[in-house]
Amino acid sequence: xxxxxxxxxxxxxxxxxxxxxxxxxxxxxxxxxxxxxxxxxxxxxxxxxxxxxxxxxxxxxxxxxxxxxxxxxxxxxxxxxxxxxxxxxxxxxxxxxxxxxxxxxxxxxxxxxxxxxxxxxxxxxxxxxxxxxxxxxxx
Length: 139
Description:
Layout: E1 4-14, E2 21-30, E3 36-41, E4 52-57, H1 58-64, E5 74-79, E6 83-90, E7 93-100, H2 101-114, H3 120-123, H4 126-133
Antiparallel strand pairs: 1-2, 1-7, 2-3, 3-4, 5-6, 6-7
């Protein structure tokens, strides 16, 4: 079993509602996938009625704490008052979430203690990643 860093982080969904809606989010970092972080939303917070996980680069989250980062489906940027905005884009629409930067930084520090940035490339199992990409089982 590979070590995992997991942290519950409250977020606020920014929408047309007069007040932001509080959403519990679980951030996960796995040693067997050292370049990525996962952001999971519980079924109760999703329109589909099932939990949803977004996977994106750990470096994107890290960079987004200091300056706007991301050009695709996930964008991260600092906000005022020690907060960070995460924008998630899908064919169904856009979700804008506000987090306390200190909580995101705490999660990242634990992930970097598990696999430092300079070692994450070495921790990638290229054969396994290719097999998964090609849909082949590994024996």
